[in-house]
Amino acid sequence: MSPSPQTYPTQAVILAGGQGSRLRPYTDDKPKPMVEIPGTGTPIIGHQLSWLAREGVTDVVISCGHLASVLEAWLDAAELPLRTRTVVEEEPLGRGGGLRFAAAALPRPDEDWYATNGDVWTRFALREMADFHVERDATATIALARPRLPWGAVRTDGFGHVVDFIESPPVEYEVNAGVYVLSPSFTELLPERGDHERTTFPRLARERRLAGFPLPQGAYWRAIDTAKDLTEAARELAAEAAEAPGAAGTAA
């Protein structure tokens, strides 16, 4: 008998309850995921929902907190490519507590699910990450990014002579990209309050049940934390559009 075909997650959680204090004044009247990337006319969460839909997700639970009504009003008015449901924390539960709270509203609790932080804007093949998760029999799999330093770096020799300047080099270590594939059993391991990155993930790592999926070469990823991140994302989008086939000024 041939093996059953791989089935992929069709449900996800977006953590959208943070106050986004480092993005003020943009977040004075809206939650962080509702901030627009300049030039796109779409908030961060709009890009996330479109990406999740392209990756086969049909249902998303959005964990809200700060200015939740603004996000809910946008969701009600927008034409979305999937079904959404919001859950609102009456008091801050922390990222792990918020994830657990939202996971309780998933429509298929006995199936794998994706999760992402509400300030992450990325594009890569989630199905490849889901395959990676299954192949390693993991309870949780985290996407790993290798961001670039926001400054130029200097290389010196053993005598203290400067030998090279490197503009925005990639950092030495991979970082948690804020995108996860999670098994059904993961939910009960989350704290009622607190941060899963300081409790649940270290525990799973010690038990060798946590996998790390390196983002594919060339995959776009950016965490929108500051006004500078907004500017950089807009610049990168414009450069990407200019390089696209058929863009004005490019060769046919």
Automatic annotation (TrEMBL):
What domain of life does the native source organism fall in?
Bacteria
The Nucleotidyl transferase domain covers 12-238
Note the CDD domains from the entry: NTP_transferase
For this protein, the record's Pfam families field holds:
NTP_transferase
Extract the SUPFAM superfamilies matched here. Nucleotide-diphospho-sugar transferases (SSF53448)
InterPro entries, per the entry? Mannose-1P_guanyltransferase, NTP_transferase_dom, Nucleotide-diphossugar_trans
- This protein is called what? Nucleotidyltransferase family protein
Source taxonomy lineage?
A: Bacteria, Bacillati, Actinomycetota, Actinomycetes, Kitasatosporales
